[in-house]
Amino acid sequence: MALEDLHHNFLTGRLEDMVRWARRASVWPATFGLACCAIEMMAAGAADYDLARYGMEVFRNSPRQADLMIVAGRVSQKMAPVLRQVYDQMMEPKWVISMGVCASSGGMFNNYAIVQGVDQVVPVDVYAPGCPPSPETLMHAIFTLHEKIRTGEVLQRRGGATPPAASSDGWTPVVPVAVRLGTPT
Amino acid sequence: MSDVTHETTVRVAERVERLTAETSEGPQGLRERRSTGPDELGREVGAVLRGTGITLDPRDVDVERHDDETMIINMGPAHPATHGVLRLMLELDGEYVLRTKPVIGYLHTGMEKTGETLSYVQGATNVTRMDYLSPISNELGYCTAVETLLGVELPERAIWIRMMMAELNRMASHLVWMATNGMDLGSTSMMIYGFRERELILAFFEKTTGLRMNNNYVRPGGVAADLPDGWEDDVTVICDTILERTDEYDELLTGQPIFRGRMEGVAPISAEEAMALGVTGPILRSTGVAWDLRRTMPYLAYDQVDFDVIVGTYGDNFDRFAVRLNEIRESVRIVRQCVERMPGGDYRAQDAKVTPPPRARIDESMEALIHHFKLFTEGFQVPVGEAYTAIESPRGELGCYLVSDGGPHPFRMHVRAPSFANLQAVPLMMRGGMVSDAITVISSIDPILGEVDR
Amino acid sequence: MIPLPPTAPPGVACADALACDVACFPTSGAYLDLVRAWRDDGFEICVDLCGVDYLGHPGRVLPEGVVATRFEVVVNLLSVSSRRRVRVRVQAGDREPRVHSLFDLYPGTEAMEREAFDLFGILFDGHPDLTRILMPEDWEGHPLRKDYAVGRVPVQFKEAPGPR
After folding, report:
1. Is the minimum CB–CB distance between B309 and chain C shorter than 8 Å?
2. In which domain, by residue range, is B218 found?
3. Cα B48 from chain centroid?
């Protein structure tokens, strides 16, 4: 078939880019509101900030239909297994945003009850700082994730058996291996 | 043949057990009837009292029921309709709810323990994260307890600023409640509207306190900062807008047959039952008891402003909605009076013990610098004693019990969270209702899991 | 300070308290009867019940005749009809703190007593379902006790590649 037989224009590109573009433009978050940050997450989805502009307004109630888990709030020792179970139920590809300092590092609650960083339980892609992060901060985290999806691998399983080697800039991705829970000493 | 069947059953049971065991809380959850005591069974069916005495009514406990006739289902803690991480276990007969047990603790933050390691000045930062929809009320409850122990007198302006901020916060809190309640009932437009109006208030909070939520604005001895320039205009705009929009919500929800059908007569609770369960706030008022601490045990300057205590009649979902909707209007009234009558003067007590010196003095005086430094590193000492003070948060009586050992940290800080007590009314409200109404019941209680679990 | 109700058990020590009409200090034997007497006197709501661990406290002010123990249960009662507040502080014991449950008088204390059990290990006789409420079921220890560490994890500041 020669090109002159075509009656309309066409674009060429790589299939990978197409997949990445599609994934980036419709990241559906799971509703995983825990504490204060959940209110700001809801505010981000509501009229003033309107996450629908980025194809993200559908907060999926079922983890099976969600691509992104926004861990919004402090994760207690009691909640951590539940969080892990919800994460395990999500389909690949999936991403995690740790929203707020409590989820990222335990924040001001450095005590027996709070898991000091949700990255002990699930692998985190983007950390959003703030207590609570304003909707703008959350949106910045989401853009960062979009960029990560746009430039990332299409076929890679999260938390695979072989940890990726250190890249040239000395940045070693941390692959969480075990859930560390229980009574602190 | 029978052996094989038995083996299969065991294997299936084992598998089910393994699957459910991962996030199971064991005895904290709802158990089968045959392993539940009569008292506990009575509690789970909501048999609080009938008549004069507060006793369990045996007629309410259906002991004839067998476990194989009913089904126990689990709802939460990661359920979209449970307003956070509340977990409910329901025993159902078809579509009807027989027993309910809330399982909480999924957001237990250890704030009472952390509060013992923080100084009194830092304490407000801690408590403000409990009820994240009304942080100002939390700080107010805590600071009132500290000030009661200290015996500090507040200047007039601090009192009125506190009162205005608390009422603005009540409006924001009730707006979020209306939004989420609307969403639970399928009215997503209400969700958008509620959050839209809340942004107005949060913008003012950000201007005044520096933060949208978790403000840490009310401090022992006053407030953190004076109101910004032009605050009267901002607040007036907020009041005008919200009052107007409240009428729109009224039109959108109150007049809507579907909304009324789902709210009216659902999950009623009587005044005696509410009081026996320790329920306070809008839920208690919806049963007809005019109990509002702002009126009955006035704190701040609530005895000097003009407002009505909104009371319901039937104690059902619709009354609870109506009470909250009208409380927004009353809050607007109070805020307007605050704008009119805001006194001048200082916004914090000039008590050198609790108040840092003014910023300008620190630059020129060594003593002022040392004083400032000591106050924020070491904190101030509070006399030995204990106090319980209560304020009316948007959800009910928010109390703070403080025990001091004379040092700069509280020896014990306990917060009586209104949602924690209100949540105990869930089994009573659920009984005999449909599963589909369970969502509206949780929503109408308005639990904030941050303060339930603390 | 308001007088004790007529049906109160004899010999209950009372004192003034901050922001409250009266604080009573019953023995653990008289505790249930005293609270019942207050309830019959018109205190409809048991607003709050919490435990306190006084281990390491330099000395609290108690009326004469009250033997201080390590654990204390503090109950705040509220009368809607007469707008009064009453506090009942009962000494619960040292080793195995134990008081009677108020569940029969105020069903609303159910969760609060479970919380006091969970966080302090105070046992409540006659409670229908004394299980942990805030902590996971297999948790060891009672976190709000004074001899239970805060559980602080040392903060590590790791070197991370910056933009510069």
Report:
1. no
2. 111-453
3. 23
In this predicted structure, the answer to whether residue A185 has a pLDDT above a threshold of 50 is no
Candidate from B77, B114, B214 with C-beta closest to A82: B77
Q: How far apart are CA B224 and CA B372, in angstroms?
A: 14
Q: Is B25 within the bounds of a domain?
A: no
Of A65, A83, A70, give the one whose Cα is nearest residue A41: A70
Mean pLDDT, residues B305-322 taken together? 91
Q: Is the pLDDT assigned to residue B19 strictly greater than 60? A: no
Q: Which residues pair with B386 in a beta bridge?
A: B403
List subunits contacting chain A, requiring 3 or more Cβ pairs under 8 Å.
B, C
Which CATH number is C13-97 given? 3.30.460.80
Nearest CB neighbour to A111, from listed C135, C152, C161: C152
- Provide the token pair at B165: 């901020």
**What residues in B contact C52, CB-CB < 8 Å?**
403, 412, 414
The ipTM (two decimal places) reads 0.90
Give domain status of residue B367, yes or no: yes
CA C89 remoteness from chain centre: 7
List pLDDT tens digits, range A90-119: 887 888 999 988 888 888 888 888 888 888
One-letter amino acid at B202 equals L
| Domain containing residue A114: CATH number | 3.40.50.12280
Q: How confident is the model at residue A58 (pLDDT cuts 50, 70, 90)?
A: confident
Least-confidence region, from A41-50, B24-33, C4-13: B24-33
Into how many domains does chain B fold?
1
Structural domain tally of chain A?
1
| Domain CATH for B287 | 1.10.645.10
Q: Which pLDDT score, from 0 to 100, does residue A184 have?
A: 40
CA distance C146 to C141: 11
Return the partners of chain B (3 or more C-beta pairs < 8 Å). Answer: A, C
Asked if pLDDT for residue A163 goes beyond 50, the answer is no
**Chain C residues within 8 A of A113 when measuring between CB atoms:** 135, 143, 151
In whole angstroms, how large is the CA radius of gyration of chain B? 24
Chain A residues whose beta carbon lies within 8 Å of the beta carbon of residue B116: none
Nearest alpha carbon to residue B351 among B122, B139, B155, B157: B155
Tell me if residue C39 falls in helix, strand or coil. helix
Please identify every stretch of chain C with a pLDDT value under 70, giving residue numbers as ranges.
155-164
Task: List, as ranges, residues 407-436 from B with C-beta within 8 Å of C.
Answer: 411-412, 414, 416, 420-421, 423-424
Q: How far does CA B97 lie from the centroid of its chain?
A: 25
In chain A, alpha helices (H): 15-25, 36-45, 80-89, 101-105, 135-151
Peptide bond before residue B80 is cis, with ω within 30 degrees of 0: no
